[in-house]
Design goal:
The N terminus and C terminus are likely disordered. Helix 7 links the parallel strand 5 and strand 6. The longest helix is centred in the C-terminal third of the chain and has 37 residues. The protein has 381 residues and is an alpha+beta fold. The chain has a five-stranded mixed beta sheet with strand order 3-4-7-5-6. It has a two-stranded antiparallel ribbon with strand order 1-2.
């Protein structure tokens, strides 16, 4: 459940399109490079280096693969030599995350590992001060900003909490079951993303504290990772945690992957449950805890498949419909308009226009560079 003090009408959950390789909205990328751009770094070069079209930053509806976003996060941190990407009071030099992990992953209970990591960051005094708190039957990872004031940008809390949740899940070798997430800011426009960022958690905004809440008993569970596994995790800095290649797949993720592999035929719920050797009622409860229904996941899979095939110019609407799991084109047209507010043809045309613009931009850049190349060849000839 997602709650806030804003008008309920503003918080309608739209069908979130999550592809086989999960995507994130373009606002995540804008936030990742915001402070790099402000200090004059070549953001376009950072984007091109990881195969992201810089023009996407201008498209409010664009989404990119989570892997590309994670790569950008790491690239921006290295360019700035600041793993907090400029959001904390003082920079955290590249390598801070690795040292925090190395200081925490040792044989013993999860509580000790998590406590050591929080203490490591508090000692640094960089503006983000996580602390482990026990309240009755609950445990909390709480973040306190400078002088106990909330940080100005919600992104700092979001990414810190996502990384902390995924890291604890990695230590456990299974997803950490969250009770709630509370944040001091207004609900963001990308609220639907919280369903995969904090699966199953009740999220509320405009609260006096920023905290992840989970069952206290988790703290007594053993760390199930060793130093060898940690070194493997750290090969890609924090990017590996952001991508989620850490045995933390939710049931929604597993079902999404299964359905994608079955396209254009989509199995019924009972058949999916049988694939996982689980009773349908049990699977239904687990999905409900993650805040998703099977029908929503099917829509997500079909929507992303349709978008992918619509970008293939040689395919007809009928062929796109078939490959996306629809019995006829009219069904695709109705569903696609419900998901995106556009017809499939309009979407396909917008993608072709953007592709042409990108190609023209590349040709123009090459033309501008050509005189310099010729001059250099002449001078060295």
């Amino acid at each position: 459940m997602i709650t806030s003090d804003r008008n309920a009408g503003e918080l309608k959950m739209q069908a979130m399109a999550v592809p086989p390789v999960k995507t994130v909205p373009i606002c995540f990328l804008r936030s990742a490079v915001r402070h790099a751009a402000a200090r004059g770094d070549d953001v376009q070069a950072l984007l091109r280096a990881i195969e992201i079209d810089p023009a996407l930053l201008e498209d409010d509806n664009a989404r990119v693969p989570l892997t590309r976003y994670a790569a950008l996060h790491v690239a921006a941190a290295r360019a700035m030599n600041d793993e907090s990407l400029g959001y904390a009071a003082l920079p955290s030099k590249v390598g801070t995350w690795q040292m925090a992990c190395l200081s925490s992953v040792h044989p013993g209970p999860i509580g000790h590992a998590l406590g050591r990591m929080c203490k490591f960051y508090r000692v640094l005094e960089r503006g983000l001060s996580p602390q482990l708190v026990v309240e009755g039957d609950d445990a909390l990872i709480e973040i306190v900003g400078p002088d106990s004031d909330p940080l100005r940008d919600l992104y700092a809390y979001e990414m810190t909490f996502v990384v902390m949740w995924r890291f604890v899940s990695w230590l456990l070798k299974r997803p950490l079951q969250l009770i709630s997430v509370t944040l001091p800011h207004d609900a963001p426009h990308h609220l639907a993303e919280y369903r995969w960022m904090f699966p199953g958690a009740e999220v509320s905004f405009r609260k006096p504290r920023a905290a992840l809440r989970f069952d206290r008993s988790i703290l007594d569970l053993p760390v199930r990772r060793d130093e060898r596994e940690l070194h493997q995790l750290l090969l890609n800095d924090v990017g590996e945690i952001l991508v989620g290649m850490t045995d933390t797949a939710t049931w929604a993720d597993r079902i999404r992957t299964l359905l994608t592999s079955k396209l254009p035929w989509l199995p019924e719920f009972e058949q999916v449950a049988a694939q996982f050797s689980i009773h349908p009622q049990t699977l239904r409860r687990r999905l409900a805890h993650e805040g998703l229904a099977f029908s929503t996941i099917k829509d997500q899979v079909r929507c992303e498949a349709a978008k992918y095939y619509l970008e293939k110019q040689a395919l007809s609407i009928e062929e796109v419909a078939y490959r996306s799991g629809f019995s006829e084109a009219s069904s695709l047209i109705r569903a696609f308009h419900r998901w995106t507010g556009m017809t499939p043809c309009t979407y396909a045309q917008s993608q072709r226009t953007r592709s042409v613009s990108a190609q023209q931009g590349a040709l123009a850049a090459a033309a501008r560079a050509a005189p310099n190349t010729v001059s250099a060849a002449f001078l060295t000839g």
